[in-house]
Amino acid sequence: MRKAVVDMRIAWSLQGAAAVVYLLSSIGSVLPLEDLESMRPLNGVFRSGNLALAVFFAAFGYLLAVRLRAARSISLVEMLVAWVRVVLPVVVAMLLVTVAVLAVTRYDDTDTASDEVTRTSLLHAWSFVQNQWILDHLLLVRSDVSSLWIVSLMVQYALVLGVVVALLGRRRWTGPTVAVLAAGCVVASIAWRAHVLSTEGWVQAALDSLGRCDAFAMGVLAACLVGVPAVGREVAGQIVGAATTILLAGLIATSFVDIDGIFTVVLPLGAALTALSLWASGADPDPRGLATQALLRPEVVATGGIAAPLLVWAPFVAATATRHEGTYPATMVAVLVAVASLAAAGATWWLLARGPGWLRQQWSARQADLTSADGDAISGDRPN
């Protein structure tokens, strides 16, 4: 039990940290370029959105693989329930962003997008293949909706993995088979992304489903290889510490690497380091290491709860705020983006975590009131 708890907590912490870095990269989009250049090399933190997504997708693949395999060993129904619980938060956040987009189109005078563009952008986002559509319609998508391609990728990857695990069932060779498929996917993804990058450019490489799936596949591979080979707690702690340190250094390194270098070197390395940390976390790493201590702190683990909603909300808030840059100072806009994004992600988490219980409580109270009222009415109708 201890092993599983530590395993999931570290994965949640890495997801949360990645989402926070992605928020910072969204903030960077509303800051003047000269201000970012003056902070070099610290401006790398505001240029690490793609690295943050690689870390997030690796942790997402790990968590999803662990849960689906554990649930599939019980029954197919349990696996479907586990799949929904992982995917639901990002879909709910997407629904709330959709409502926010519709509100912006109605009440924000700076929004000049036509109703047709808004409708088309949202419909394709909800098709969950929006990333493919954007490649052919770069000029026909709202800027505050285009970032929902992240949701498209998450749902696509989750659906493929869910089908694979469901088909393989409870067979003893399920783990090795999934590991082989994931390893093949890693190689194919990296090679395909390099090809797309050289022939079509980084935008196409960023949005391509196959070109982005190496991080997710590495996370799945790490989940399948937990305990193989076996390592001691001290060694596992050292691996987590070294991998985390290099990842932090990567935030600074992005200040010196061009976009081609980020896609060909930084992203695969970041995903591999994340997968290595997750694999080592399955060995219950020694908690005396600084990195392990940091990743196991409750407040760090808690950020994993808002990770997926934050990835969805931050780009929308930044794109909306960008239209008001001329009215307010850039620093104020950046602070508002951070506060509004965190507040929206936190509200989404509350809705998912507390909302169902609150609704059940209200429903039970309502039913109790109706029962009491019916009882009083029956008593009043009886003759004395």
From TrEMBL:
<feature type="transmembrane region" description="Helical">
    <location>
        <begin position="12"/>
        <end position="31"/>
    </location>
</feature>
<feature type="transmembrane region" description="Helical">
    <location>
        <begin position="239"/>
        <end position="256"/>
    </location>
</feature>
<feature type="transmembrane region" description="Helical">
    <location>
        <begin position="215"/>
        <end position="232"/>
    </location>
</feature>
<keyword id="KW-1133">Transmembrane helix</keyword>
<feature type="transmembrane region" description="Helical">
    <location>
        <begin position="262"/>
        <end position="280"/>
    </location>
</feature>
<feature type="transmembrane region" description="Helical">
    <location>
        <begin position="300"/>
        <end position="318"/>
    </location>
</feature>
<feature type="transmembrane region" description="Helical">
    <location>
        <begin position="51"/>
        <end position="68"/>
    </location>
</feature>
<feature type="transmembrane region" description="Helical">
    <location>
        <begin position="148"/>
        <end position="169"/>
    </location>
</feature>
<keyword id="KW-0812">Transmembrane</keyword>
<feature type="transmembrane region" description="Helical">
    <location>
        <begin position="176"/>
        <end position="195"/>
    </location>
</feature>
<feature type="transmembrane region" description="Helical">
    <location>
        <begin position="80"/>
        <end position="104"/>
    </location>
</feature>
<keyword id="KW-0472">Membrane</keyword>
<protein>
    <recommendedName>
        <fullName>Acyltransferase</fullName>
    </recommendedName>
</protein>
<feature type="transmembrane region" description="Helical">
    <location>
        <begin position="330"/>
        <end position="352"/>
    </location>
</feature>
